[in-house]
Design goal:
Blueprint lengths: L10 E4 L2 E11 L7 E8 L5 E7 L5 E2 L3 E11 L2 E5 L6 E5 L15 E7 L2 E6 L3 E9 L12 E6 L4 E5 L7 E5 L5 E4 L3
Antiparallel strand pairs: 1-2, 1-5, 2-3, 3-4, 6-7, 6-9, 7-8, 9-10, 11-12, 11-14, 12-13, 14-15
Length: 186
Amino acid sequence: MNVTELRPGNYFIDEGKLYQVLDILLNKTAMRKMVAKVKAKDMRTGAITELARNSGYDVEKAILDKKKMAYLYDAGDNLVFMDNSTYEQIEIAKSKLEWEMNFLTPNLEIDILFYESEILGITLPSSVSLQITDCEPAVRGDTVNKAMKNAVVETGYKLRVPLFINNGETILVRTDNGEYDGRANK
């Protein structure tokens, strides 16, 4: 496909690397061909790069597969996931999932991204329910503009929560930025 046909969210292969389009800017001046400036994420390394290509440049469109799986347990250097319908288990290296490990609890359903037979990573839900294991006590009178305190959730992740949250409560945490998103429904 032509580089000018790419849209955010598309996957493509260029010079042997697999990319996901984050943003694209098409620039046309009177004296030059159209130039496509593509902000893309390398799906294997996670690096974000800017690619500038002329309008006649072709890239190979890539189709990624998603498979629903549940997180089972930590197996040392790897994390184990299972397909709930076939009971097939796969292991993914912890080094590929450093950010995602902050939100993984047993039996959490996630999507695993595949390209052909290569595992690229996982896609978490937009927010997850996590239980508070350690929380600072609220300081009386400390209510100037959106007072927050430090807390630790069951996965060991540290975040800031409102003063009214206590130990043992279950909260929603956003997986994109790791911030408090509200109380979880019981």
